[in-house]
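Practice set, problem 2.
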Amino acid sequence: MPCYIHHMYPNFVTSLKDITNIADNLSYCDVMETEIRSNQNWQFINYVESLVSNAASKGDKYRGFIQFPSNLSKMSKANKYIKLLRKYNLDNDSLSLINEKFFKKLVDETVTDGDIENCKFEKDDMYDMIEHFFGKKVPTKMKRKITSIYKKRDITITGVMKKGKSKKKIEV
């Protein structure tokens, strides 16, 4: 809730006195939340609720619609990429090395089929890493090439499944 109020209060507060009051309440709220999260002092949660309520009550009638705070989506994306790095045991040094050796070739469309076949990344993870960490997009032509190579990696097992008196051909 404090994040929503911080994101929205300029849209519904008109007096400078109220703006400073809300900003003060939100800064105290941030200090309390830091204390709660870092030291697990949950007795401060009531103060956070009080400060948030006080900040929310200062505004005039809201003009517009409620927007999702952009910093929450940024935090969500950051957490996604942290998990991605952990999944492949990567750090900044190894990422820059992979960029020089592999990702740069993907973006420049100079990567070979053998490079892609030896790649240990899942296809979507690879695209996400290139886009997030290197600020580039993989060209559509290269994505088609990668998809065809990844499809060849899949193993198809064929056989016959017998159920009762009927037989059915299956592929797994």
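Problem 2, part (b): a different protein.
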Amino acid sequence: MLFAGDDARIAAHWKPDVCIWTGGPSHPSLLSQIARTSKVMLLVDAEINTLSRGTSLPIPGLRDTILGYFDKVFALDDVNLTGLQAAFSDRIYVENLGALREGGYPPTYNESELEDVRQCLSARPVWLAALCADAEFDAVLQAHEHALRTSHRLLLIISTANEGDGHALKALAEARGLSAGLRSDGDDLEQGFQVYVADDPEEIGMWYRVSPLCFIGKTLVPSHSPQLLAPAALGSALIFGPLVHNTSALADQLENQGAALRISDAKTLAEAVVILLAPDKAARMAHNAWEVVTEGAPVLDRLTNIAGTVLDGGGIPDAHT
């Protein structure tokens, strides 16, 4: 995968067979070099305004040359479809399958352990604070204390971003008067803890799958790359803080489509947890989250089909085959 900021010499070295280009077709030298070896060039998430800006270059004929590199164009939405069809002068059939969204594989889990955990938790309401930084522990525990007033059997599973934080977090919970178990000490979920510290980050895939409600850790403190996609794809209603860093576009989309609640501090986290303890509200948000995550599936499937067919020696397959 190449990015627009890469030097054209990188393309000359790697000689890509398939180019999937997002955004406006600027960087003519890079596109020219990729076109020398690429069997197919696809322009994705295309917008007519960006297309015009990206090709408004002073050299006569350069705009048409750049547009001529592409074999297939995918409009971002219906609004851009007509303009793009005119820009490509019917040389290319412009498709509109929606936006290409970020994707990813959900984290793995141990199937037998997941079944055991589900049986232990079948009669208890649960919420998950996932991959939390140590500076967030106090806010999460405060939120849980508040939520316990509404649901006295509520269990908080708090997953630590760092494996070595487990004992300190358990001690912090107990100092607040909360009964706490620690995964690495072999504490059993059936013991009726109020807080269960899941201090192995590698097990996060299992915890996502048992909780209908997930607070995204590393969003109340400066950090990097909070995990939004995985819990959304696995059926959780989401809560996240104001510091979503390089996932801001996805966070905005989840919030705008009713798939997540954005909070600012421990108080608003507590309020959000109480709101989403209602199963119907959590289920509705989880459904919305799933729709956001799968929104880009049609265009991704189409791109994969084109790339596979071309690499196997064929041409661009018809959209309906």
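Answer key, part (b): The mean pLDDT is 87. The domain at 111-294 is CATH 3.40.50.2000 (Rossmann fold).
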